[in-house]
User: Fold this.
Amino acid sequence: MFSFIIRRTFSSIPTILILILISFALMRLAPGSPFSSDRGLPPEVLANLEAKYGLNLPWFEQLYTYLKGIIFSFDFGPSFKYKDRSVNDILAQGFPVTLTYGLWSFFIAVAVGIPLGIAAAVRHNTKLDYLAVGFSIGAQVLPNFVMAPILVIIFTLWLNWLPGGGWNGGEWQYVIMPVIALSTSYMASIARITRSSMLEVLSANFIRTAKAKGLANSSIILNHALKPALLPVISYLGPAFVSMITGSVIIDIYFSTGGMGQFFVDAALNRDYSLLMGVTIVFGVMTILFNTIVDIAYAWLDPKIRL
Amino acid sequence: MLVNKKKLAAMVDSASSQTPIEGRSQWQDAMVRFKQNKAALVSVFVLFAMITIAFIGPLLSQWDYETIDWALTGNAAEMGAPSIANGHFFGTDDLGRDLYARVLQGTQISLMVGIIGTVVAVLVGVLYGAVSGYFGGRIDNVMMRFVDILMSIPYMFILIILFVMFGRSVYILFIGLGLFSWMDMARIVRGQTLSLKQKEFIEAAVASGVSDFTIIVRHIVPNLLGIVVVYTSLMIPNLILLESFISFLGLGIQEPLTSWGALISDGAKTIQYGTLWQLAFPLGFFITGLFCFFFIGDGLRDAFDPKDR
Assistant:
């Protein structure tokens, strides 16, 4: 097990490098300079600016400096647009916000989705089951960018209970709507996957044996059925995490939380390439690390995988 | 004995008069099962109606999707509400453009993005997966490792960077979405190919000297079509969701063209002025369309693979 963890962790390093290379290549291939504006700067000024940010060097030297900065000092360089701030400053400002409601959403999606799926499978073809299935079908067409305006209409405009946006240091009133908007569709998917895999496991022979032994229902479900039933759910968590991170961009924009997404879209519209790359790489590394954790958890849970 | 002989003769008679039982192909079986699924069947009709409206509907309106009704500009909240009298069936948007024409135009674009992007993704994914699964061994290892790497990258960010750098045209949207969503298809197809290539008919083809390329195209791919159809139908709504996501951010489709995501985004920005119709109509089309696609996809999956529910 230990050697598997080591091996799996190391095999994620090339992925991270490829991610950095792709973003770097895209930035190099981009037509035009980030400093070219409508007014048109004099060529000498442009040259000076490019020299200041090291853009006049050959590409391999730029890549080397960039990689060295990231690996040894976690430094993503200066922002091209926000003159007085480095990419690191911006990351430090936006990242905690995204992480706060992102982790809450993930936690709630799992903590509600899995029990709901189990309950629906155990009470198969009852009202509870139909309710859960109905919810998971309905939530498929309610992605975060549809949920967000609907929530604002209900809770801000009609009921006037919650503020329609902002962050305010992460006070709970400001966190609720982003978390609901982000987690609903994943909660539904997790519930659906848990339900169908639990149904399959419950009809397996070893469950029948457990029933024949006279085990209590709760003990059958918790001790025998739960572990195999969770395998498909765990392999779904990886992709779910990736798209949750991507979805946070919408949440940041719509609720003006001041998270990473807002900076990302601003950077995209302003052609602030270094900030774009910084955000992409940080999010990418997070997903890759998370996928590694998911793989390790999977290997730990699945009896068929021998290490 | 006599009675028995008569019976026997009668049986032979009736047997010979019956037409031989026709074998049913996998596709006919699937059609029968699909037709029993009411939700899926209704969805097919609704979707067909929606496509018809999207392409014929604009002819019924005196407004087109980019002309601004100057009589209403700046006062959309009070005068832009849906009305038959001034010809704005769905009202107008914030600028005074006819929402009916815009929603239909957005429907066209969203459906097209979903379908064309899926075609690109399916072509790439099926070929990649079939080649990887058919050759196996080291080639398979390398090709699948590459897919693993691609899948663990949050490609949405890369895609947005692509849009920013190479301009925002509809074509980049089609191709970009397709090129970033073939990986799932490749994995599924590879798995199926691995088991298919053990079959006798592939062995027979190899023994009779058919080239690898012909085997893949003529023998492997046609046998994959069932599963490909199922995943294709589930991919279309996902691509529509992706496109709407990007357009919601204002990074996708460009004005005056529009799509469901862009319309929802516009409508969501103005809800505090009480112009609910600007959100309600695009959202209604979006939700109905996605529901239809998901129901059809589920129906197809049950029809082609009754075990897997």
Observations:
- The mean pLDDT of chain B is 80.
